[in-house]
Amino acid sequence: MKGKILVVDDEEAMRRTLTELLRLESYTVTSAGSGEAALKALKADDYDLMILDIKMPGMDGVTVLGHASEIDPDLQVILLTAHGSLDSAIKAIQNDVHDYLLKPVKPQELLNSVVSGLARRSESTRKQLIISQMEASIQQLKDVEKVETQAPTDQRLISLSDGVMVDLSRREVWRGKVKVNLTPTEGKLLEVMLENQGRVMTHRQLVFLVQGYDTTDWEAPEILRPLVSRLRRKLAHFPNGKNWIESVRGTGYVFEEKPGVGS
Q1: Residue 263, exposed/middle/buried by CB under 10 A (0-12, 13-18, 19+)?
Q2: Which of 17, 20, 93, 209 is deepest in the core (most CB within 10 A)?
Q3: How many CA atoms lie within 13 A of 153 on its CB side?
């Protein structure tokens, strides 16, 4: 599985060599020449794996590791060092890095480590999605149980702004005499987004929760785009409904209910 990789090394020749090697394998690669630049890149974008040199002037690799784990606890890290020592190895273990390699590293050795690191990242993401789905299901069961004791006939009925009603069991959305019917997939997407109102859902999370399978960061947007487009067209029949599902550039979508003009 291909992924996004950040290469951090103060030696320009090493950065260029690693970057070209990884790009030849079709990875998306960004490079940084210092610890400070690395942290700036991690805050600006999401990465699956970081290849990090330990010995750098200014902020060294160990310091970068500490901050990186706070920014993204699931980021996989491969440490590189030209001077292996027991102390640096211990620090690598303490920071739960994926691998620890000595320079000069053999290309195939590095590529093998990258493949296993990305697989570890994918497994971690999959587990998080499963946990998220389980938590949502448990909460849904609690909500259903609570509503059943109050109004069993309305257990799947949701009221939105401007008098818009959603019946998830029938996959219907209506307001007055205006009614639209949703396909099973459209209904599931709307259900997931209603359960997570105001929360930005990534493309991969939505594909997993709606379609039931995991996919890559590149495939997920292509899978979702036509589905979201169809659902938006149907919601556009209601006041400001076309704006309820907002795109979050480079990340996914968020459902934010907004009353129509003049309501």
Answers
A1: exposed
A2: 209
A3: 0
Residue pair 213/185 in contact (Cβ under 8 Å)? The answer is no
Token readout for 24 is 């030849």
Q: What is the dihedral of CA 48, 53, 56, 59, to 10 degrees?
A: 30
Q: What is the pLDDT of residue 145?
A: 60
Q: How many CB atoms lie within 10 A of CB 117?
A: 23
Distance of CA 72 to the CA centre of its chain: 11
Q: What is the pTM of this model?
A: 0.50
pLDDT digits (tens, 9 = 90+) for 143-192: 656 655 544 444 578 888 888 999 999 999 999 889 999 999 999 999 99
CB 174 within 8 A of CB 165: yes
Domains belonging to the chain, first-starting first, are 4-124 (3.40.50.2300), 156-255 (1.10.10.10)
